[in-house]
Every structure is written in structure tokens, then in C-alpha cells.
Design brief:
The chain is an alpha/beta fold.
Length: 397
């Protein structure tokens, strides 16, 4: 059974203990309840549970599962919100948050600088069902002011954009949204659950791809939608439990165990990213280095106000476009070419030809996704080794 948890525990304590349920065997490490179903002593008990399942009573893993519940309670405690619903992937979480809130005729305002699959849902899926979507430059408050209307139902944004690391003034945008009664949904992947400021700044629902910092070791896909019990249980849960986007108990167990080390990992990766950004700033082979806590970041003051730290990812724009950027990628020895980020292994990505390939050239240009741009995700290797690796790769061009 779930133990009573101390509300005043600090993050690191919650990440190790919150939400633990122990079976009759008293296991130390959380058990994987790898079961899709649950049994009932009597037909009457089954009937009663279908009428109303109580706390820690389960019916079917698409609706809920004890291992998944431990993960949901732990990450909700970390985020400082009441409840959570875990999903099969980050995109299942984004899709559920939007689809559960919207209906035909509704209006959405979204920042334009989005991960490609988020853009697909907004541009191609929602519009097919009669939802009107207005895109804005998320960094321009005037554009938000003009776009948000009395009939706007949802405001969607990535708090820090992928891959250009633009920062949105979430407090100001949330105020505009709430003034018309719109729900603010924030994809918080880059901000990380450790440094998250989304709820305090006005977000109503926070969404993570837990594939990123939560797993952080390249094993499982996962996602989560976080918010008040009212929002999660009345709006998100009915949509997810009937449309099948639930997280598998095995993946939930991986994520749950990963939460125990997440604070240590994210802080170590952040320290490395901060050092690497500083070491590369002003490099002769680069047009620019983007990292929220570098003074040269266009929204440095906002980043300092909102973010405790600059995060685990930076972006560099290599002079000479794709040809030179590819040379740098191919010359790296420790950094791995991949399209994930926030992993224990440092990863480099060329967004223009991979994650954002499907965008037309004008859209890439508008978003700052140049042909020389490389997204750099710092892992857990030694920071000196990573800096040396990047500098020797830049020497090759
Ligand atoms: C900002 C952002 N949102 C959502 C996702 C989707 O997450 P997943 O791959 O777990 O579906 C990603 C993946 O890279 C992302 O970068």
C-alpha cells in the first residue's frame, strides 16, 4: 500500500521514496506489476469496482496499474502538482492533452517553434477536425496579444523550443490566456522536470516526454500529463483510458527507478552543458552558440528570471552550413550522432536533415534552423573529455 508521504520533503527525497507501494513481500525495490488485468474475489466485487474503483484499486492496465501509479505519484510530487497520467510516449501525452481539451470550432494559439511531431498534430490533425490554429512567434508578446481571442480554448507552447532554445515568457502568455479562460498546455521537455517553473508561471497542464531526462538512459519511450486532480481525472484520464495511450508497466518501472537518480544526472549534465557553452562561445568556426544562461542569448534576462539553470542542451551554428556541420559531426569521437537528447551519452543532432527535415525551407529559416545548426545534448561523460572532443572536431573544418 502507498505510504503516507511527507509533503515537506525536498526534491531528492521525494524522487527516491514518494509513491512507494509495497506488496506483502516487503520488497526494497519497487515491484513491476507486469499484468494487464486484475482479478476479483466475487462477481459482486467486480461489479462494485466497475461502478467506482477506490484508491489503489485497479481494473485493467490501460486504465491504471500499481507500478504506473507509483511513477505518476512520484513525478506529480516532483512537479508540485496533484496528479498525473503516464503515457506510452511524449507524443501520446501531447496528443492526449490537446485532443481531450478541444472540439470542432475551437481556437488554439500556439508558438511556431515546435518539435516536428507537435507541429504535425496542430497543423495536420487538429485542423482536420475543425479546430482553428493560429501560430505566433512565441518570443513576441504582441503576437500572442493579437492572436488570443475570446473564443481561444487552448494556448500551447514549448517552454524552451527544440532545437533553437528560444524561451517564452510563460507568465505573461499565461495571463493573456487566462484572461479569456483558455487552458495553457506546456511541453516542458527542454526545461526538465528538475528545473521546471511551468506551474508557478501559470501552466494548467504540463507535458513531458519522459523518454528524455526521466529515463535519460536511452531505453524506453514514455510521457506524462501533469495537472490538478480535477483536470487529470475528469479530462485527461477518460480520453487516454479509452484511446489506449497508456504507459506500459515495464516502462513505468524503468522510469520510476530512473527518477531516483534524475536530480544527480540532470545537475551533472547541466554543469557540463554550461562549461561547454562557455568554452565554445566566440569560437572562430561558429556563427553562434545558443544556451539559455549564456549572456549572449537573446532572452538571457528572461532565462535567468525563469530558469534556475541553463539546462542540458545547447545549439551551435557552424560556419559553412551543412557541409561543414556534417564534417564536425563525423569528426566527433565521444558525442554520438542520434536524434534523442538528455541521455547519459552525449548526443549531437543536425535538426535540418533529421528531426525538422519535413519543414519547408522558409519555415526552417523562420525558426532559425539553419543548415549549420547542431543540437548538442550533454551526457554524463567527463566534461573535459567532451570539451576536448568538440574542439578537435571544430579543428577539422
Ligand atoms: C519538445 C518535444 N516534445 C515531445 C517530444 C516527443 O517525445 P517522444 O519521442 O517521447 O514521443 C519530443 C521528442 O524529441 C520533443 O523534443
Amino acid at each position: 500500500m502507498a505510504k503516507n508521504m511527507a509533503a515537506n520533503w525536498k526534491k531528492r527525497t521525494k524522487l527516491v521514496h514518494h509513491g512507494v507501494r509495497r506488496s506483502q513481500y516487503g520488497e526494497l525495490s519497487e515491484a513491476i506489476f507486469l499484468t494487464q488485468g486484475f482479478v476479483y474475489d466475487t462477481a459482486e466485487a467486480a461489479e462494485a469496482r466497475f461502478i467506482k474503483a477506490g484508491e489503489d484499486e485497479y481494473i485493467y492496465a490501460r486504465y491504471g496499474n500499481p507500478t504506473v501509479r507509483m511513477f505518476e505519484e512520484r513525478i506529480a510530487a516532483l512537479e508540485g502538482t496533484e496528479d498525473a497520467f503516464a503515457t506510452a510516449s511524449g507524443m501520446a501525452a501531447v496528443n492526449a492533452a490537446l485532443m481531450a481539451l478541444l472540439k470542432a470550432g475551437d481556437h488554439v494559439v500556439s508558438s511556431r517553434a515546435l518539435f516536428g511531431s507537435c507541429l504535425y498534430i496542430l497543423e495536420e490533425v487538429l485542423t482536420r477536425f475543425g479546430v482553428e490554429v493560429t501560430f505566433v512567434d512565441g518570443t513576441d508578446l504582441d503576437q500572442w496579444k493579437k492572436a488570443i481571442r475570446p473564443d481561444t480554448k487552448v494556448v500551447f507552447l514549448e517552454s524552451i523550443s527544440n532545437p533553437t532554445l528560444e524561451i517564452i515568457d510563460l507568465k505573461a502568455v499565461s495571463e493573456l490566456a487566462h484572461a479569456v479562460g483558455a487552458t495553457v498546455v506546456v511541453d516542458n521537455a527542454f526545461a526538465t522536470p528538475i528545473y521546471s517553473y511551468a506551474l508557478g508561471a501559470g501552466a494548467d497542464l504540463v507535458v513531458y516526454s519522459t523518454t528524455k531526462h526521466v529515463d535519460g538512459q536511452g531505453r524506453c519511450l514514455g510521457g506524462v500529463v501533469l495537472g490538478t486532480t480535477e483536470m487529470i481525472r475528469k479530462t485527461i484520464e477518460p480520453y487516454l483510458k479509452h484511446t489506449g495511450g497508456a504507459m506500459s508497466p515495464f516502462n513505468a518501472w524503468v522510469m520510476l527507478k530512473s527518477l531516483e537518480t534524475m536530480d544527480l544526472r540532470v545537475r551533472a549534465q547541466t554543469a557540463t552543458a554550461t562549461r561547454l557553452a562557455g568554452a565554445l562561445e566566440g569560437h572562430a568556426k561558429l556563427n553562434r552558440v545558443s544556451f539559455p544562461h549564456l549572456p549572449s542569448h537573446p532572452q538571457y534576462a528572461l532565462a535567468k528570471e525563469l530558469m534556475e539553470e541553463g539546462g542540458t542542451v545547447l545549439a551551435i551554428d557552424v560556419k559553412g552550413g551543412k557541409e561543414k556541420a556534417f564534417k564536425v559531426l563525423n569528426a566527433l569521437n565521444i558525442f554520438t550522432i542520434s536524434n534523442n537528447f538528455a541521455d547519459a551519452k552525449s548526443i549531437v543532432t543536425h535538426p535540418a536533415t533529421t528531426t525538422h527535415q519535413r519543414l519547408p525551407d522558409e519555415q526552417k529559416a523562420a525558426l532559425g534552423i539553419t543548415s549549420g545548426l547542431i543540437r548538442v545534448s550533454c551526457g554524463l561523460e567527463d566534461a573535459d573529455d567532451l570539451i576536448a572532443d568538440m574542439l578537435q572536431a571544430l579543428d577539422v573544418i
